[in-house]
Amino acid sequence: MNDRPPSSIWNLRTCRRARLWLFFLCVSGLAFCPAFLLYGAENPTLAIKLDQVGYLADAPKVALVESPANTPAKTFDIRRSSDGKVAFHGALSPAATDPLSGDTVQAADFSQLSQAGTYYVEVPGVGKSWTFAVGANVFERAWYLAMRGFYGQRCGTAVNLGSEFPGYSHPACHLHGEFHHSSGARGPRDNIGGWHDAGDYGRYMVNSGIATGTLLWAWEIYSPQLKPIQLKIPETGNGTPDILNEIRWNLEWMLKMQDSDGGAWHKQTSTHFPGFIAPEKDTLPSEVIGTGSAPYKSTCATADLAAVAAIAARVYKPFDAAFATRSLDAARRAWKWTEQYPNVTFRNPPGNSTGEYGDSNCSDELLWASAELWRTTGEAAYHQFFLSNYVAYLPTLDSPPGENWSNLAPMALRTYALSRRKDADAKAQAAIRDRMLTAARAIVSATAANPYHVSLKPKDFVWGSNGVAAQYGMDLMIANAIAPNPAFANAARDDLDYLLGRNTFSLSWVTQVGEHSVLHPHHRPSGSGEQPGPWPGLLSGGPNAGRNDSVLAALPGNLPPEKYYADQTASYASNEIAINWQATLVFLLSGQLH
Ligand SMILES: [Zn+2]
Q1: Tens digit of pLDDT for each residue in 386-418?
Q2: Residue 179 burial (CB count, 10 A)
Q3: I need a surface site. Which of 302, 420, 501, 526 has the fewest CB within 10 A?
């Protein structure tokens, strides 16, 4: 070494330049960038947990550190990725033990660092963290990937993520559609439209309902920020904002699921799940499934269609008046059908083993439909239905997050609270808003008290707990939309930080977002082996203390709830993706854009 100093220096500089270049490619999402290229021989440590995407410049910024119990660390440095220089030096908080994970962590608060850049945390005796950004709009790329995740789920068409993700494409899938005899109809049916629901290739109206409604709400609340973002989808440039172009792909399928009498069939799936094969290789017929006897359609599916189509009618009006009219007509006809059939429930017909999304009570779906139809039309009949029924559902706001694919009453109440219609009942609106804001303040307190700064409670570690975390964030952001409060927005961002890496696994649960992200989601296209890694932008379901699959069941029985997670394709109960919690992630990210 000493005998060739000029060359060594050149090599050192070249190496640093190469690492910078690779880092640039990595953060640009253009190339896979192993951590050792960024840090030389020293790998980032899982003991430092932070949001691997980053932190807004003017917002609180906290990383969490597990340090050795016998020699706890006292200080931390924030270093610039470009040259390793210290940009901020701070003291770690006293250690606290987190009941959700069992981890003992210290907080590294660097909120005062506001200069835009790319950084990592270094803690003496512990190591270096993954890199992250600080800036005014750090979440835009994550939003882009998460929203584009829906494009990758499109059914009945070819999909291609383009040069940004070479090889992430497939020819048109599931082209053979037909009516199953349980639908009351017969014969073939074209099969274009809709998003594959989750890790499987089925499409289900009730899960489409909450997912599509959530995305349309994101547009309604955050349209100035979302409008300019292009998703590089086939419709880009057609004059309609791309988020609405993408949502319409699913809306068209939902509208197609409406029968001529106004009712909507419950689902369109194969008889059983296919293996882990690429979508176009799944040749099982895609069947429209009904209840098996008259009226064949289900009330929950029909009411969900009424709600979502009613939102679509007001959202698409400035961009495509004819589509808005068609949506409103569908919503009205769906509502009329439910007046005749107020609680026709769905169970899988014999021989069908795909998802059921069964729901024994559709009255909350009806409440949501009435609220959205009123919000769009102002008509007295819808308003009266809502006002006559909403009080019984107010308690669903008390322990958020109360909404999920089978509980839509909070969506009904929230849309009423969000409405600016002058004919709104002031007393009802005040009651709902008060209840929502009280609940939001309680979430803020609980989140601040949790050592990981996350809103989750032990009871929340169910199937799709990451969706629950995102839902807490969404509820907080809706409260923030009604009564702006930095504490609401900051707590919502805490939940986002958890999803993007500030958790016990130091893992970003969104594929290809962050340096250390989930690799093996339960997602058939990702598990097919046709691409080099998982399809990007997809949120894993997350820890599930219910241990509903064999991978989780094989873990020791006495772990803290957050530990019941496995980044394995086989762990459908902890690592599946799904459009409902994906939509909630998009909503939460939408609220962080500027
Ligand atoms: Zn398909």
Answers
A1: 999 999 999 999 988 989 999 999 999 999 999
A2: 19
A3: 420
Neighbour-count burial of 522, counting CB atoms closer than 10 A to its CB (0-12 exposed, 13-18 middle, 19+ buried):
buried
Q: How far is the CA of 189 from the centre of ligand 1 (A)?
A: 14
Residue 546 CA to ligand 1 centre (angstroms): 30
- For residue 508, give both structure tokens: 């970003």
With CA atoms as reference, report the closest residue to 155 among 260, 242, 269: 269
Pairing of strands 86-91, 75-80: antiparallel
- CA of 236 from ligand 1 middle (Å) equals 21
Residue 349 contacts by C-beta under 8 Å, 6 or more apart in sequence? Answer: 180, 182, 289, 290, 292
The answer to whether the CB of 303 falls within 8 A of the CB of 352 is no
Q: Give the alpha-carbon dihedral of 51, 54, 58, 62, to 10 degrees.
A: 30
**Whole-angstrom Cα distance, residue 395 to residue 398?**
5
**How far, in Å, from the CA of 107 to the mean position of ligand 1?**
45
Encode burial over 468-490: b for 16+ CB neighbours within 10 A, e otherwise: bbbbbbbbbbbbbbbeebebbbb
* Residue 200 is among the residues annotated as catalytic for this protein: yes
Provide the angle, in degrees to the nearest 10, between the axes of the packed helices 299-315 and 363-377: 20
Tell me if 391 sits within 8 A of 432, measured CB to CB. no
Q: What are phi and psi of 79, to 5 degrees?
A: -115, 145
Q: pLDDT per residue over 512-525, tens digit each?
A: 999 999 999 999 99
**Structure tokens, 196:** 């594959």
Query: Using an 8 Å Cβ cutoff, are 50 and 129 in contact?
Result: yes
Strand partners, 160: 169
pLDDT tens track for 151-188: 999 999 999 999 999 999 999 999 999 999 999 999 99
Is residue 549 part of the annotated active site? The answer reads: no
Q: Which residues contact 209 (CB under 8 A, 6 or more apart)?
A: 254, 301, 304, 305, 307, 308, 365, 405, 408
- Of 51, 197, 200, 282, which residue is the catalytic one? 200
pLDDT tens sequence across 529-576: 999 999 999 999 999 999 999 999 999 999 999 999 999 999 999 999
Catalytic-residue membership of 475 = no
Choose, from 174, 383, 522, 523, the residue flagged as catalytic. 522
Question: Is 576 labeled as catalytic in the residue annotation?
Answer: yes
pLDDT of residue 213: 98
CB-based contact 154:245 (threshold 8 Å): no
* Ligand 1 geometric centre to CA of 407 (Å): 27
- Residues 404, 210: contact at Cβ < 8 Å? yes
196 CA to centre of ligand 1 in angstroms: 6
Cα first-last separation, the chain? 50
